Amino acid sequence: MNEPRFPNDEGEDAWMVVQVSADEHWNAYHDIRRAVLFEARGLIGYEANHPDDRRDEHFPLLLLLENTPVGAARLDLMDDATACVRTVAIRAECQGKGYGRMLMTGLEKFASQHGVERLLVNAARGAVGFYGALGWTLVEAGGENPVLTKELRTRP
Predict the structure, then answer these.
(1) pLDDT by residue for the chain (156 residues), tens digit each?
(2) How far apart are CA 124 and CA 127, in angstroms?
(3) Can you tell me whether residue 43 is helix, strand or coil?
(4) Global pTM value
(5) Which domains does the chain have, with CATH numbers?
């Protein structure tokens, strides 16, 4: 596979975040999102071939733990060196074990390598504490999904 990879460089668990391009990774990406963001919430209508996933400047990402897909997210590049984090999901049986943190670490590395200086996310209310623990700042608490932001350290 020639997918861009953002491996763990901390010498701990064998994990990496990959940009989705291979069919097997697309299938895992959609399976995770469907199960966590739709089925677990009692929602229907998941669209596996949504055009937003394949737009230019939109990057579906997959967290692999020892080559097993455990999490998914999408990074949408915007203007002004800003990107929006979308559809973050960790398999139910893997939640609460630090994998969300791993996914976000890889996503941030990917974003930095694409010139992103600022991330935004419309978070589920229950995820605000998760993002806060990762250094995100709440900028808009109203509405169904609070908005948080994080400034990334840029590399010279």
Answers:
(1) 344 444 555 555 589 999 999 999 999 999 999 999 999 999 988 888 888 999 999 999 999 999 899 999 999 999 889 999 999 999 999 999 999 999 999 999 999 999 999 999 999 999 999 999 999 999 999 888 999 999 998 655
(2) 5
(3) coil
(4) 0.87
(5) 5-116 (3.40.630.30)
